[in-house]
Amino acid sequence: IFGVSVLQVVQLLPLVLNLLTIVCFVLLASELTRDRVELLLCSGIFSVVFQVYQWTAKGGGLSRSPGFLFTLLSLWFLLLYQRKGANYYLAFAAAALGFVFMSHLEWALIAVASIFIFVLIKGRGGLKKRIYDLLILGMGAALVSLPWWGTAICRFGITPFANAWNVAEIDAGQFVEKFLAGSMFSINVLTVEDYFLPLLGMIGFISALFYRRNLLLPVWLLATYLVAPKNSPISGLAQLIILIAIGLRSLDDILS
Q1: How many other CB atoms sit within 10 Å of the CB of residue 22?
Q2: Quick one: 97 exposed, middle or buried, by C-beta within 10 A (0-12, 13-18, 19+)?
């Protein structure tokens, strides 16, 4: 491909997509943060957190990395639609969601749960309008990904889709154990355990929930944990890192 061997493409493409994901995260965070200070904080944290690269640049990253990229992109377009009202942003969000399905099914579960929360909490208009938006997103994504899922069903039936859900699923005991252990917040910069960022994430969670009256980020984090608990905190990285920035900002406000 353009004079590059297939092996080199497989090695380099996840890394390139990972770097593009940083750009998409910054765009998404710009719609969810209070000011440029919080945006700068969460952008810097996202760029150095180990888990951002752990699941997307290592084995399997060839499908995981575009799944993460298009998930963030679909949510950014959805926020632009909710803020500006231009229908083409909704179409872009649906197309990006379709690419998530074609990239990685577990990221598709996370993207669907995220979009549902975004429409529920920040959606435009009343209930009928929100249901209409969800239908447009679903049908648009289905049409974009039709060549992929149509071929997959014709050749293998629904087995790949069932397997994706089974991979993401854990039993009730593991679910509760991971939840009580705070796995939603367990991120670090180095490969060793780090308690500073998780603590800031918890502070940001409480601050967003009770002081800012901003339900989106905490509920979004809980929703992604519910649909993909096995790979937590990676499934909720975007919102967790924004919450960490909020926690750091809240701590600074308290101490100053």
Answers
A1: 15
A2: buried
Q: Which range among 5-9, 71-75, 99-103, 170-174 shows the weakest confidence by mean pLDDT?
A: 170-174
Please state, in angstroms and rounded to a whole number, the distance separating the CA atoms of residues 176 and 126.
35
Residues 187 and 201 sit within 8 Å (Cβ to Cβ): yes
Report the alpha-carbon distance of residue 186 to residue 196 in Å, rounded: 10
**Residue partners of 172: CB distance under 8 A and separation at least 6:** none
| Residue percentage of the chain with pLDDT more than 70 | 88
Axis-axis angle for helices 105-122, 159-168 (nearest 10): 70
Cα angle, residue 67 at apex, residues 217 and 13 outer, rounded to 5° = 130
Alpha helices in 123-236 (DSSP H): 127-144, 146-156, 159-168, 172-180, 196-206, 216-227
What's the confidence (pLDDT) of residue 185?
84
Query: What is the maximal distance between C-alpha atoms in the chain?
Result: 62
Q: Tell the residue number behind the tokens 């942003």, with chain if given.
A: 89
Rounded CA gap, 212 and 208, in Å? 5
Q: How far apart are CA 107 and CA 227, in angstroms?
A: 10
What does the pLDDT look like over 43-83, one tens digit per residue? 999 988 888 877 666 655 677 889 999 999 999 999 999 99
Note whether 65 and 14 are within 8 A (CB). Answer: yes
Q: Which two tokens stand for residue 57?
A: 């640049």
Name the token pair of 228. Answer: 């993909």
Structure tokens at 12: 């380099």
Contact by Cβ (8 Å): 98, 145: yes
Mean pLDDT of 15-44: 91
